[in-house]
Q: What sequence folds into this?
């Protein structure tokens, strides 16, 4: 195992503390992993091992849950994660073109992180803002009625 | 005799003389910039010295998302829509301070030019019967507001006047059927649950809302969470459960927060907890958050997910009512189903049954979206014709395009065509037409939507969401997707259509849960209704709607190209190459479809669409 940086060590301490409340309870794995992902931004193998050890759950079971649910990511994400909604309402209103435009503008493909670590692109399931389709989600914020100019404005805003 | 809706309206009238501002805080409005409007309102109220006196409340979705951000000004009930921050300031200065309604900002009927002031006058709302949505966008989601409109009165009545059996009887009389997609009679389900032996029982409110393009449950939880909580407590009383869970999808953070706040408020007022209203009944609710999986909306998979494992479905029987959460009897109802309960208990099942049709009583909330002028939540009595929903309420198709299809039931449903516009929307009619009501997603498509591509879209979704537990679904969806991809790439053959039908049958009959069993529906319904479109892709290598990229690629017509090189110079994606004396070519991988070459070519040598290749059947 690679040597952990000071920051990483601190994150693992944080995780250990967070997991305390789940110990010995059943039905808590999903919630525990959600919290772990909040701390690390994603779930690298080492974090999954840590969760498995702390909660005495087989790693295979942890992995089966992580790989099942779409909200868990095993690859790093950018500081700003731009997610294009691929629900039906957004799709018929041109989500695919929006995704293409976003890829061209940032020079990234879904799943990649920009060299400076600031941006990554992904698709998301319906966010329930279908009335304003097509929609882009950045963190907890939603941007509706998106088009080419909207993308330019959004990226400019985020770059500042 | 007054209708249930009129009765509700009368309850609602409260003497109001003071100004009050309601700002739509639904998600579409938020995403369209309602935050800036809110800031402008606050600043201007402050500047005019009215900040403390005129309350500004952020409410759940008011209804018409395409007209957001929207504000309603009481006591007059004037609605202002599509607001910009400057407009918000004008409203405060003119309407609030000077008492002059800002006519220039009001909705004007495009035909009659008449100015429409109140929400109820707008065509979008006029045609609706908002019972479940009675509070959404009209009051703030706080319990104090809910109590002003007879909130928790149904619970009080149930606990004080009705035995659990009598509550179930009312629900049975109402004829209410599940709104989550299955349409199972709610009263019967409760009865089975009550009869199920066990000292520990659970209620689950299904707020997973997996259909992509549906947002009814989200808005109910955000706009009126107490109606759902009240419904759950009554369900607990009627069936003998003491613990409830709301399973919300993680994509709905605001719904999660509002539900949490609402539970805390209800607990504080003693509608939740021990010995509710001193009637000896105890009930608690907790929230469980999903992690992104469509199958978790299916009841047995949902239970697996609350157990903290993969959301794998299980064979039924045993049904959850016999062996559900932690192996105990469990009642699962959809958000909208539960939100109907307080109405039924308070006003009586027979009043409720007056609405809608025989065998399909009450109203249904639809999430209207896609290629439609007015998107948003529409609640109508079951049996309302599709045309009324799309054209009278939804305002028809934008840009004078032609209506092509209405998709209902999401990935488990199907498409209705123009010939179905006069069909009454209820459980049976839609099923007979090859679709289903589903949970209420209603996506409108126009002539620019390719139905083969839509079938591919849904299959792509389902294939991705298949949990993989049973073979027919795991492999069948993959094979069906491959064929649909082949057809949309212009490489399909006519015998593929037959293979699709065969695979569909296999999935329908052989899959473990409803996900796989209903997965072929979008394909079957489009194959049935839009077969020509499939054949155009296969035989003519064209996509009539101009959607499928491989069939609508830009290409250079060799005979016409004079090798001037203009296109290569202006192409922003550097997708065009060539040399003097030879025709230029477009690299489809690089082409971003900006159409600049098409516009600039002096010789009209660039065209869209595949070459017609002689198909074997020709
Ligand atoms: C694949 C699949 C997905 C489902 N998704 C949902 C959903 O998102 N919300 C929901 O309420 N019911 C959903 N259901 C239906 C539930 O299994 C269940 O029938 C419903 O929650 C029962 O509540 P009701 O009787 O009040 O409708 C789904 C069913 C299947 C097969
Ligand atoms: S389809 Fe994009 S928000 Fe629902």
A:
């Amino acid at each position: 195992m690679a040597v952990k940086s000071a920051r990483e060590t601190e994150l693992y301490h944080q995780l250990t503390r967070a997991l305390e409340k789940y110990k010995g309870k059943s039905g808590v794995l999903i919630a525990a992993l959600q919290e772990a992902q909040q701390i690390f931004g994603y779930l690298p193998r080492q974090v999954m091992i840590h969760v498995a050890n702390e909660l005495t759950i087989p790693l295979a079971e942890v992995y089966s849950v992580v790989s099942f649910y779409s909200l868990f990511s095993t690859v790093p994400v950018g500081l700003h994660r731009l997610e294009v909604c691929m629900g039906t309402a957004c799709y018929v209103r041109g989500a695919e073109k929006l995704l293409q435009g976003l890829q061209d503008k940032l020079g990234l493909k879904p799943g990649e992180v920009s060299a400076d670590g600031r941006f990554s692109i992904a698709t998301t399931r319906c966010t329930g803002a279908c009335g304003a389709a097509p929609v882009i989600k950045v963190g907890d914020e939603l941007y509706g009625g998106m088009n080419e100019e909207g993308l330019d404005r959004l990226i400019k805003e985020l770059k500042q | 005799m007054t209708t249930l809706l009129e009765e509700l309206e009368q309850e609602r009238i409260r003497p109001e003389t003071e100004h009050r501002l309601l700002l739509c805080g639904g998600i579409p409005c938020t995403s369209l910039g309602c935050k800036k409007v809110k800031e402008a309102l606050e600043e201007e109220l402050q500047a005019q010295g009215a900040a403390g006196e005129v309350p500004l409340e952020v409410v759940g979705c008011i209804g018409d998302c395409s007209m957001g951000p929207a504000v309603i000004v009481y006591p007059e009930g004037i609605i202002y829509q599509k607001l910009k921050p400057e407009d918000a300031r004008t409203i405060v200065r003119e309407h609030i301070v000077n008492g002059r309604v800002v006519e220039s900002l009001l909705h004007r009927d495009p035909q009659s030019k008449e100015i429409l002031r109140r929400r109820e006058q707008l065509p979008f709302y006029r045609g609706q019967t908002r019972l479940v949505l009675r509070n959404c966008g009209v009051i703030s989601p706080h319990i104090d507001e809910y109590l002003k409109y007879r909130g928790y009165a149904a619970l009080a009545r149930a606990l004080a006047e009705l035995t659990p059996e009598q509550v179930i009887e009312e629900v049975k009389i109402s004829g209410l059927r599940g709104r989550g997609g299955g349409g199972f009679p709610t009263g019967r389900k409760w009865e089975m649950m009550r009869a199920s032996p066990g000292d520990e029982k659970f209620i689950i409110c299904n707020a997973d809302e997996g259909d992509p393009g549906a947002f009814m449950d989200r808005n109910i939880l955000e706009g009126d969470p107490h109606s759902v909580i009240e419904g759950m407590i009554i369900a607990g009383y009627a069936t003998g459960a003491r613990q409830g869970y709301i399973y919300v999808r993680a994509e709905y953070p605001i719904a999660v927060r509002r539900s949490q706040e609402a539970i805390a408020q209800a607990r504080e007022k003693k509608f939740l907890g021990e010995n509710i209203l001193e009637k000896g009944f105890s009930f608690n609710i907790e929230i469980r958050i999903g992690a992104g999986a469509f199958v978790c909306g299916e009841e047995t998979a949902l239970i697996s997910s609350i157990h903290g494992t993969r959301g794998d479905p299980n064979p039924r029987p045993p049904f959850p009512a016999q062996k559900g959460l932690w192996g105990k009897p469990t009642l699962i109802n959809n958000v909208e189903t539960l939100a109907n309960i307080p109405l039924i208990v308070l006003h009586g099942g027979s009043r409720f049954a007056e609405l809608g049709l025989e065998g399909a009583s009450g109203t249904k909330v639809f999430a209207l979206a896609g290629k439609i002028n007015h998107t948003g939540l529409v609640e109508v009595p079951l049996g309302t014709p599709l045309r009324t929903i799309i054209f009278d309420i939804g305002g028809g198709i934008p840009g004078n395009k032609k209506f092509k299809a209405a998709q209902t039931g999401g990935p488990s449903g199907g498409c209705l065509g123009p010939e179905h516009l006069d069909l009454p929307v209820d459980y049976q009619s839609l099923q007979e037409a090859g679709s289903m009501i589903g949970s209420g997603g209603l996506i409108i498509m126009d002539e620019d939507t390719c139905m083969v591509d839509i079938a591919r879209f849904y299959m792509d979704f389902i294939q991705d969401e298949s949990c993989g537990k049973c073979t027919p679904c795991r492999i069948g969806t993959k094979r069906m997707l491959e064929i649909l991809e082949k057809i949309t790439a212009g490489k399909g053959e006519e015998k593929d259509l037959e293979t699709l039908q065969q695979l569909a049958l296999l999935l329908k009959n052989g899959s473990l849960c409803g996900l796989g069993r209903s997965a072929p529906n979008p394909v079957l319904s489009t194959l049935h209704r839009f077969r020509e479109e499939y054949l155009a892709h296969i035989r003519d290598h064209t996509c009539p709607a101009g959607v499928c990229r491989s069939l609508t690629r830009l290409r250079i017509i060799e005979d016409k190209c004079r090798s001037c090189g203009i296109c290569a110079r202006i192409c922003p994606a550097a997708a065009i190459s060539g040399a003097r004396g030879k025709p230029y070519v477009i690299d489809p991988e690089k082409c971003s479809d900006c159409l600049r070459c098409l516009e600039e070519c002096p010789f009209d040598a660039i065209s869209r669409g595949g070459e017609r290749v002689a198909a074997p059947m020709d």
